[in-house]
Amino acid sequence: MLSFNSKAQNQTIDGTLTVKSTSDAIATFQTLDDKWLYTQWKNKAGVRKAYMGFDPNLTNFILGLENGANKFSVNNGSLDLNGGVLTVKSASDAIATFQTLDDKWLYTQWKNKAGVRKAYMGFNPSLTNFILGLENGAKKFLIPNGKVGIGTNNTGSHRLAVEGSIGAREIMVEVSGWSDFVFETDYNLPTLIEVESHIKEKGHLKDIPSAKDVTENGISLGEMDAKLLQKIEELTLYTIQQEKEIKQQANEIEELKSLSNRLLEIEKLIETKK
């Protein structure tokens, strides 16, 4: 056993230092002035390549790489941040890289305090589909801010931009107004002559965008559904009007038939008296 005491001086070991222990606290490093506390690694020329320890406030534990050292590796092991936060900042591409070594499942996962997985994100076993999976009570995926582009980088003013078709069993569109005002008593229903005149002049129905407008600006589903419903309701009113006119004309025809029959009977009486 070799023991020594040292005060106010550095001890240099020109060789390999091996420390073995069967108890905790194999090595202890303590600052005497509550300032910087770290260990450091230097190359042969004495240039520091890395250091590890506390900052001057003794609040942040840092692994610092410098002077050409730019990679921290954990070979054949794992890095566990238990109760901490991992923050990654970068001024370049590929901020984080995940690579499978067996071409099977490749994903990251999120667990609650009890270790129950609530969500995972990554590739399926064939590495063909990228999946965001929610499970065990997690049922909502939110993007609080920002925009999403599928098949395009140009989202314009849209929160979601899709280059291609969208397949869905149902789409719910929220609108601020509907077209039941057509059935109000003070609604000015255009006459069919006015409708015909507008079509001849403009080439489309009133309040409906033209083909040129649609090509240049597209359509809003909610707004367009309301406009189409407006036209359907107007057509319904026209149909009701025409139904009333048809019934009136039918009654008038029946009256004319009755008068015609009476005239025939009168003519027959006149003929018989002759």
Dominant shape = rod-shaped
Strand share of the residues? 15-25%
Task: Give the helix proportion (percent range).
Answer: 25-40%
In terms of structural class, how would the helical and strand content be classed? alpha+beta
Whole-number mean pLDDT? 90
Spatial sequence of strands, sheet with the most strands: 1-2-3
Major sheet size, sense and barrel closure:
3 strands, antiparallel
Backbone CA Rg = 42 Å
Q: What's the N-to-C terminus distance?
A: 160 Å
Low-pLDDT segments: none
Number of separate helices: 3
Please report the total strand number as a whole number. Answer: 8
- The arrangement of helices and strands along the chain is EEEEEEEEHHH
Structural overview:
It contains 3 helices and 8 strands. It is α+β, with helices and mostly antiparallel strands and 274 residues long. Strands 1-2-3 form a 3-stranded antiparallel beta sheet, with no helix packed on it. Strand 4 and strand 5 (117-123) form a beta hairpin. The longest helix is centred in the last third of the chain and has 53 residues, at 221-273.
Q: What's this entry about, in short?
A:
The chain is an alpha+beta fold and 274 residues long.
Note the main attributes of this structure.
274 residues, alpha+beta, rod-shaped, three-stranded antiparallel β-sheet
Helices, strands, pairings?
Elements: E1 37-42, E2 48-54, E3 61-65, E4 106-111, E5 117-123, E6 130-134, E7 148-150, E8 160-162, H1 192-202, H2 211-217, H3 221-273
Parallel strand pairs: 7-8
Antiparallel strand pairs: 1-2, 2-3, 4-5, 5-6
